[in-house]
Amino acid sequence: MDSFEGIVEFIAVAESRGFSAAAKQLGCSTSHVSRQLARLEERLGCVLLSRTTRLVSLTDTGAVYYQQVKELLIGLQQANELVNLQQIHLTGTLRVSAAGGFAEHYVAPALMRFAQAHPELSIDMDFNSRMVNFVEDGIDFAIRYGELADSSLIARKLVNRPMMAVAANDYLQHYGEPKQPGDLKNHSCIVTNNDTWKFFHNGAQESVKVKGRWRSNNANAVLQACEQGLGIAYMPKSTFTEAVKCGRLMPILQPYWGSGSSSWIVYQNRRFMPLRTRMAIDFLVQYFARWREDENI
């Protein structure tokens, strides 16, 4: 069995291209990873990794060895999972990166239900809109809204997010109600990450560049600013659920609302992931399978 020592560390280094990143992924020290790799190379009698001050890469021999042992490790991990699936005994920590009001108000409660079903599982949910490095930051998956630029990641759609435009009664009484998207150029609009709003007008998409006194990338801050009468807001419908139901905000421009974007689960492109991660992703996809933005208004 000694011949298997160092293989897990070798695969982690090969995939993360670094000893520190591999150590973080495995939850051990960098020195442990380095020692295991050195012993593995000594037993094999060859160099598997080419090390420089900035980069760790596979040698030709290392690349061949990686392809072979990777399949063996995946098979072993999947065999272990078959046993675990019979017991459904999840442990460890699930680390999730999330951004936006949808993640805060809907995804977080869903993950709380998942945690209740698995008492020995810990969940670390970081609300941050920055781009994450899944290996370096130790993130299992992220919840993101809108178009995804990084094609190296896997994305599974959670829900479609059609849009809604709203304003406070005080604002509308003072400045009037816009009748068509082009009228927004003469209004104060609350800007999020995008100051070009897309509507449907006469069967075609119409883009309107807006401006205003308040800008924020936080959905709750936009909602509160709109309720205070600082301008018109345009975001996914579920953002305004309670405010519209309670009459604090009024829907406007309803015939022109756009279809919006989607919320996604995003994770690293790898053939194997921990059982807790896979089950959490499948749980969220199933949980939101029948969720509709319109039903929350």
Chain-wise SSE layout:
Layout: H1 7-16, H2 19-26, H3 30-44, E1 49-51, E2 56-58, H4 60-87, E3 92-98, H5 101-117, E4 121-127, E5 141-145, E6 153-161, E7 163-167, H6 169-175, E8 190-191, E9 196-201, E10 204-209, E11 214-215, H7 219-227, E12 233-236, H8 241-245, E13 250-252, E14 261-268, H9 275-287
Parallel strand pairs: 3-4, 3-5, 8-11
Antiparallel strand pairs: 1-2, 5-14, 6-14, 7-12, 7-13, 9-10
Helix pairs in contact: 1-2, 1-3, 1-4, 2-3, 5-9
Number of helices: 9
Assess the beta-strand content as a share of residues.
Answer: 15-25%
The portion of residues assigned to helices is 25-40%
Q: Main sheet?
A: 5 strands, mixed
Query: How many domains make up the coordinates?
Result: 3
By CATH, the superfamily of the largest domain comes out as Periplasmic binding protein-like II
Kindly identify the CATH topology of the largest domain. Answer: D-Maltodextrin-Binding Protein, domain 2
Report on the architecture of this protein.
This protein is of the alpha/beta class and 297 residues long. The protein has 3 domains: 2-83, Orthogonal Bundle (Arc Repressor Mutant, subunit A); 92-161 and 262-296, D-Maltodextrin-Binding Protein, domain 2; 163-259, 3-Layer(aba) Sandwich (D-Maltodextrin-Binding Protein, domain 2), CATH 3.40.190. Helix content is 38%, strand content 24%. The chain is built from 9 helices and 14 strands. The chain has a 5-stranded mixed β-sheet with strand order 4-3-5-14-6, covered by helices on one side. It has a 3-stranded antiparallel β-sheet with strand order 12-7-13. A two-stranded antiparallel sheet has the order 1-2. Helix 1 packs across helix 2 (19-26) and helix 1 (7-16) packs across helix 4 (60-87). The radius of gyration is 25 Å and the shape is elongated. The N and C termini lie far apart (60 Å). 30% of the residues are buried. The mean pLDDT is 86.
